[in-house]
Amino acid sequence: MGKESIKFTIKQDGTVEEEVMGVQGDTCQGLTKELEDKLGDLQMRVYKSEYYQQKDVTLQQNKNQTNG
């Protein structure tokens, strides 16, 4: 995956959207927790496809090759 980054969009009505890029799995929640706590109430969370991807695919393949 590419470089980890967080993109913020502040709309005219004052709501803030954040998008985490460059991470897989639930890592995004750890990266944004402190910021979300400071911004206030979370209205909605939308998960991208990367959230559902496994982080340790390479490690698992190496284990299988060693054991197989």
Detailed description of the structure:
- The protein is an alpha+beta fold and 68 residues long.
- The chain has one domain.
- It is built from two helices and two strands, in the order ββαα.
- The chain has a two-stranded antiparallel sheet with strand order 1-2.
- A hairpin with a 5-residue loop joins strand 1 (5-10) and strand 2.
- The mean pLDDT is 80.
Any key phrases for this structure?
alpha+beta; 68 residues; 35% helix; two-stranded antiparallel ribbon
Helix content: 25-40%
Rounded radius of gyration (Å): 16 Å
Question: Which geometry do the CA atoms define?
Answer: elongated
Unreliable stretches: none
How much strand content do the residues show? Answer: 15-25%
On the 0-100 scale, what is the average pLDDT?
Answer: 80
Give me the number of helical elements. Answer: 2
Straight-line N-to-C gap: 28 Å
Strand order of the largest sheet: 1-2
What class do helices, strands and sheet pairing give? alpha+beta
Main sheet summary:
2 strands, antiparallel
How many domains make up the 3D coordinates? Answer: 1
In short:
With 68 residues, the chain is α+β, with helices and mostly antiparallel strands. The protein has two helices and two strands.
Secondary-structure blueprint:
Blueprint: E1 5-10, E2 16-21, H1 27-39, H2 57-67
Antiparallel strand pairs: 1-2
